[in-house]
Structures are given as structure tokens and as C-alpha cells.
Sequence to fold (578 residues):
Amino acid sequence: MKRIISICATLALAVSCGLQNGNYTIQLLTTNDVHGAWFDSTYVGGKVKNSLYAVKYYVDSVRNAAGEDNVVLVDAGDCLQGDNAPYYYNYVDTTSEHLFVKLAKYMKYDAITVGNHDIETGHRVYDRVNSELEDEGIPFLAANAIRTDNSKSYFQEYSCVEKDGLKVCIIGFTNPNMKEWLDESLFSGIEFKSLIPFVQNEVDKIVKKEKPQVVIVSVHSGTGDGDGSILESQGLDLFKSLKKVDFIVCSHDHRPFVKDGDGISLINSGSHSRFLGHGTISLKVKHHRVVSKELESDLIKVNPNNVDTVMRSKFHKYYEAVKSFTMTKVGILSSDLDTKDAYAGMNDYMNLIHTISLSCKPAQISFAAPLTYNGHVDAGTLIYNDLFTIYPFENQLYVVKMTGKEIKNYLEYSYDQWIQTATSKNDHVLKIEKGSDSRFSQDNWHFVNRSYNFDSAAGINYTVDVTKPFGERISISSLADGTAFNLGSTYNVAMTSYRASGGGDLLEKGAGVNTDKIQDRVVARYPEIRNLLFNYLKEKHDIDPVVIGDTKIIGNWEFIPVDIAQPAIKADMSLLFN
Fold:
């Protein structure tokens, strides 16, 4: 907070002397959900990809045209997870200054907002990054992350910067829905306030104190629908309701989106360095005060081939360190793995995840979803990089008590996200649509819902009848070993920490489980699932389809009736992955 006070004191003196009359234009540039897309080359194959190197190229273009003193650069969170690079600097190289801090300093970010995936790295990582950013004069913002011991903000609440003689206030807020994403041990000592009405209250307080000419609210929250129904996507809710705010920068849902309103603009630049959010505010000053403002926003599409070559050279040694780590040999894969096979029925990819989950005692049943939408791993020698394709996130594994009825209802809800009722092989079975979607190109076929919530089960034998309506599709015949499955019995179910915390609503809305009290049901906790996979390879040395496909362990499931389900799903898969 010392840096804020000193900066704001200087600005207050300038304001007290009166703004200079004239016209001012400030350019706002935004990133969000970069998820470790720092380097412009893949670690295997050397393919060009979107990166902060390319973002920096476009930032420099705007700075050169508008003047650096007229540009504000803000990130809206999820910086520390999602790629090999942040993993390496989060957990492997923990002695040097975190690479993200070096990148943020080089790019001259004015402020960075805390995201839910930043919190997912755990106290040891985000506390370290917060401290290092502070040392570099870059605020890590989350005004609604409140300490439980003294009710003060755990992170910095806001920052004031001077741009062309104007005071610009950046106020940051993180996702309030942490309990549905993460285990509480990852944010011990912190609680998260809903953005409404908290944001307006903070804005009122800060504007009264600082008297800025420009106010930017940066939230790690999705754009949403603006109907107040989604706790973790309150962007449009804020857009409709906030006063005294010029720009809302939102994030989280990876949905590139801009909207200009009456005296306020909203910007969501999507994810993975594909777009740079751009806002322009033009102010007119008369009699030493702002008498008018004009705002507009757009998105700058980032060409991955246009990069800051000096930045690339400066950070190349860090890329090589990550590449060396991720090229480490970890085992053998007996046959190719395609993650998209998970949408069509039982497959080696999901069998592997389920087998590892069921090896964690006392698990009897496993729930798991495909976390890579369309990844491929060739048979042969596996390297650590392949483990990121198989399992890209740092989810822990929990074993949770559930009744047979809850398990059945959970699966009904899961498959309803994934399939729809069909009457013939010419109908769509997969719940897909054609049109615009932020994850894919315009007018491509895509799933209506997020595939990382398409849980299947192992440890039981069951069928999914695609001709039946929701609530009647799942029929569970027995446990994998042939033991009877009873709706009234209690079973130990392995699932991710994300799912156990309420992620995807499968437990809450599907099974009717109160996830606020999930700790009462947790009977075992295990490390990150990618680490479990690594340990499996150290013990077994290879991934054999016969071993991971042992139906006596993982059971069996299929879509029925086969004469309708198989051809219909095959046709749908062709549309999705043509």
C-alpha cells in the first residue's frame, strides 16, 4: 500500500492545482486468462502459437502511436496456471524470481487482477508472486478477497496511476465463486465476497477518497448474461448497474466480447493471448475539471507471427529451461490416445484417468471428465509434456461418500449436459449446435455445454439410453466386480477437488449434495492428479490399454440402443472434428 499512498499523494497535489484545460485521450489495453501462453513456440514440434511476445508487439504499436504516457495496460487474471511454463516456475524452479513477474515487469503492466486459477496454485505460489510483484511496483488486485482474521483485504484493493496528468484508478476484484472451484485449503484464511453490491460500495469509497478522472474496474468474472443468475459471471450485471465507472474489464469465461453503453464500456479479451482488449476514453477539460467523456471499445486480433523479437531473445533461456523439463522421458504408451474419444463412449483416455483414480483407496467408484477437448498423444516414449495433454490442470483427487441414488442422479445430470434424446440414427445424440462460439471458429459445430463437465463413471456397470428423457437414461446393473449396486447403499467415489467443491454443479444440482458441507463427506485426499499419473508411470513404466481397460476394475458402460446411438454419435463426431 505504500506505493499507492505515495503515488496518490503526488496526484492529489497535481489535482489540487487544477487540471490543464484541453482534450485528453487515454488508451486502455487489456489481457485476461492468458493461462501461461507466454512463449511463441510449442515445446514439441516448434509450432508457432499465440504468446505474450505477440501481445507485446501490439501493445508497443499502441504505445508508439498514442504515447506511452497515454496507455494503461491491465490483466484480469488467471496468469499462473494452464501451461508447462507456469507449472515449472510454480513448483520446479522456486528459487529465482517467478518468470511471470519478470514478464509483467518487462511488459510494463499497470495492474494485474487475481484469478481463480491463480488461487488454485496455493498459498505458497500466489503469496510468493504477490510479494515479488509488489517489489516490482505492480499491484496484484483482489479487493473482495477478505482476510478472515481481521476483515481486511488479503491482496491490494486498487492502484492509482498518472497518465498524461490524469489520475486513473484501477480497482480489482477476483471471482467470488471460489468454493465451487477449489478446496478451501488452497485459500485458507480468505473469504470471497460477491461482486454485487460489493464492487459499487468499493467504487464509491475509493472515488470519494482519490477523486480520479478515469475509473477502471477489473474483475475476474465472466461476461455472463446480465440477468443476475450466475455468481461467477457478473460482468454484464456490473455493466448494467455500476455508477462512476468508465471501463469494466472482465474475464474467466474465455469469451471475447465488448460492449459500449451509456458512459461505460465492457471489455473481455477472451483467453490465451489471442486478442488484446482495447478501450479509448476521450475527455474534455474546461475550467480545470472534466466536462465530458466519450468511450469506445474493441478487440485487436493478435497475429502470433508478429512478436517483440527483443522480448523473445531476452526470455529464450527461460523457454529452454521449461522445454528441457517437459522433454523428460516418463514412460511408454502402448497405443495412441485421443481425448476426443471420450465423447463417444468408453475409451483408453478416460480408462487411464479412472484406473488411476480407483487405485486411490478407499475409492470404489470414479467420476472423471475429459479435460483436453481434442488432444492427441502418439504411441511410443512418453515425455512429461504429454502429461499436460492428458491432464492439463492441477486438480487434486478427493474420495467422497455418496449414496447409490446420488450417484445415479449425478450421472443423469452429467450426461444431460452431453447428450440429447434421439428417436432414430438420423437424429443428433450429442448435444451440439452450429454457430459462433468463443472456443472455435465462426460457424463451426461445437458442444452446447463445456466438455470438462462431461463426467463418466468407472467401477460400475451401466448403460445410457439415448432414446429416454433426462432422469431415465442411466441404468446401473452392478459394481465392476459383479456385486449388486443399491440406490440406498453408500459408496466411496473418487473425483477432482474442482468437482467436490461444486464445480459444474454436478454434485449440487445433479446429486443434490450440499457442497458447502462437502468436508463432512470427504474420506480421503490425494495430490494433484497429474502427479498421480506420473507416479503410476514410475511404478508401471507403461500405459497398456489391456491393463487400464480391465473391466473387473473399471467396469463397463455404453450408449444404447446401439443401432441408434452408434451411427448417430459417429455422424455428430464427424461434424465436431471434421
Q: What stands out?
A: Residues 239 and 507 are 31 Å apart (CA to CA). Residues 1-17 have pLDDT under 50 and may be disordered. The longest strand covers residues 289-301. The first helix runs from residue 2 to 16.
